[in-house]
Amino acid sequence: MSRRSQKFVNKLSRAAEVRAERVRTVRVRLPSQSMIMKHTSFGRAGMSLSSGRRVALLALIGLCWILLPACGNQNSTMPAIVVTFTPGFTPPAAMATGGSAGIAATITNGPQNAVVNWSATCGSTDCGSFNPTSTASTIPTTYTAPASVPSGGTVTVIATSANDATKSVSASITIQ
């Protein structure tokens, strides 16, 4: 064991002893009134951890001492968030005007309660609608195609991660 580690273990061993509080009453007389103050001092009261518990505590602290530096490693990076369409709920290649379809997206490497925001773009003002416009990852939304064929004949549906707006997936749907 290195000298630094030994010093740390000794310090922890001393800190592990339970210290009891002793209170002493001190009377102070002032010209106009009498006042009682409590003076607190700390000292050993003869209580300490059993040797088995002390060993377990020191082993736990030593393990934390070894593992905690890895938590602050600046070179480690989180995996990037990935958005994909959920199998079984992928956008259809073509839809009739006014038709509807269930579409879902899955967010990988995101938070446990990841949210997907839904949008659509096209060459017209009416590109269709989503109900609801936000869903949890893997939960489907209902896309309703526009009432008339948009300019260009296609609508692009987009699923975007609410936690990172730069991560999204899109698909084109031909409106007939």
Structure report:
With 176 residues, the protein is α+β, with helices and mostly antiparallel strands. The protein has two domains: 3-71, no CATH class; 82-175, Sandwich (Immunoglobulin-like), CATH 2.60.40. Helix content is 19%, strand content 40%. The chain has helices spanning 3-15, 51-71; strands at 19-29, 34-44, 82-85, 94-95, 100-103, 105-108, 115-122, 129-131, 134-136, 141-144, 154-161, 168-175. The strands form four sheets. A five-stranded mixed sheet has the order 4-12-11-7-9, with no helix packed on it. A three-stranded antiparallel sheet has the order 5-10-8, with no helix packed on it. Strands 1-2 form a two-stranded antiparallel ribbon. Strand 11 (154-161) and strand 12 (168-175) form a beta hairpin. The radius of gyration is 33 Å and the shape is rod-shaped. It starts with a helix and ends with a strand.
